[in-house]
Amino acid sequence: MIYPSHMELITMPLAPLDTRHLPAGVHSRFVDGVNGLRMHVLEAGQQKPGQPLLLLLHGFPELAYCWRKVMVPLAELGYHVVAPDQRGYGRTTGWSPTYDQDLRPYSMLNLARDAVALTFALGYRRAAAVIGHDFGSPVASWCALTRPDVYRRCAILSAPFAGPPRLPFGTAAPGSQRAEPGNATGGVEADLGRLPRPRKHYQRYYTTRSANDDMWRAPEGVGTFLRAYFHYKSADWEGNKPHQLANFSADELAKMPTYYVMDRNQTMAETVRPFAPSATEIAANRWLPDAEIAVYAEEYERTGFQGGLNWYRASLEPHLVADLSLFSGKTIGVPSMFISGQSDWGTYQMPGALEIMCERAFAHMTGVRLVPGAGHWVQQEQPESVVEHLQALLAIEV
């Protein structure tokens, strides 16, 4: 038998996601011609013409499916709710799964362009809000920053947005020192490696050639790997007790769990494996039962993880970061909100980002909401609270 190649697997025609995997009222379909993509979307509330749009953007390693628990409640508030599989993920096609490729398609500006192209393809000139979780948070933020005429509100979940890279300012004065913009992890990586217990930052690991196969070909299988990964970053793991870090130094970063600051010689699969939930814990899980983790596993078994990992690579690529500095000093002016789980280290993983987000990056940040009983997967762990907070944001007149 001749088996299809990886490229053939992610480009072959796909059916919409089976309705048996979706809550009543959520539908799956494809939208063609979205910035070069055939984009798979989940939607709710589309039956009533004229409903304002809510665009929901997932992170890593997620899918449009991560929004399934909030889509119908938001639609019942009077919205057309759309969640795409973003570039590099799920049933969306038109992207390459390879490591050796031009990373510009995965730049923040192009990912925001994907969102705008989808919004327009759906027949909207403006949306009531753009909402992003995890790596979807900076995409949503860039949408609101560059196209406030389209996205009238912005909610970001689990990952604070500290604004565009800043260009040096006031350096023309005699004797001034030029401060070049840097990247998120480059300067501290060597220091992490010199700790008594040598470490490495997960974002740097995700840029390596081996990261995809480490997870995709993990001996325990994709589903078991994902189960451990989701559990370790959730409120179900009692070790998640996040707090502010004093600064962006190796000693401070090493206080975080190993899913963020890994042991230097371990893969991500090896990192999360000791924290896999027990059979009893899995049976007790109501926010991600076996039937739901199986949806993630089936998609990632087919696609691998490289599409999503290319987002991390592009975010650390100097020339792509430099492109973003065109917007240095520009703030997001639309009403916005930050939502995260009380047990989510994502709120604090970049020391200082939360404060910069509130004080400088957003001009109309209406609040920071930390949800009890939730870790990193806040819209899956505590969907009712997330809908309640989003409803408050949506009630603000614009």
Topology readout:
Blueprint: H1 6-11, E1 27-34, E2 37-44, E3 53-57, H2 68-75, E4 80-84, H3 108-121, E5 129-133, H4 136-146, E6 154-157, H5 186-193, E7 199-201, H6 202-205, H7 211-216, H8 222-232, H9 250-253, E8 261-263, H10 268-272, H11 279-284, H12 290-303, H13 306-315, H14 318-324, E9 336-341, H15 353-361, E10 365-371, H16 378-381, H17 383-394
Parallel strand pairs: 3-4, 3-5, 5-6, 6-9, 9-10
Antiparallel strand pairs: 1-2, 2-4, 7-8
Helix pairs in contact: 2-17, 3-4, 8-12
Could you describe the 3D structure shown?
- The protein is an alpha/beta fold.
- It has two domains: 13-164 and 327-394, Rossmann fold, CATH 3.40.50.1820; 186-308, no CATH class.
- Helices cover 35% and strands 14% of the residues.
- It contains 17 helices and ten strands.
- The protein has helices spanning 6-11, 68-75, 108-121, 136-146, 186-193, 202-205, 211-216, 222-232, 250-253, 268-272, 279-284, 290-303, 306-315, 318-324, 353-361, 378-381, 383-394, and strands spanning 27-34, 37-44, 53-57, 80-84, 129-133, 154-157, 199-201, 261-263, 336-341, 365-371.
- It has an eight-stranded mixed beta sheet, with helices on both faces.
- Helix 2 crosses helix 17 (383-394) and helix 8 crosses helix 12.
- The radius of gyration is 20 Å and the shape is globular.
- The relative contact order is 0.15.
- Mean pLDDT is 95; it is low at 179-183.
Give the name of the CATH architecture of the largest domain. 3-Layer(aba) Sandwich
What is the share of helical residues?
25-40%
Strand order within the widest sheet?
1-2-4-3-5-6-9-10
How large, in whole angstroms, is the Cα Rg? 20 Å
Low-confidence regions: 179-183
CATH fold label of the largest domain: Rossmann fold
- The helix count comes to 17
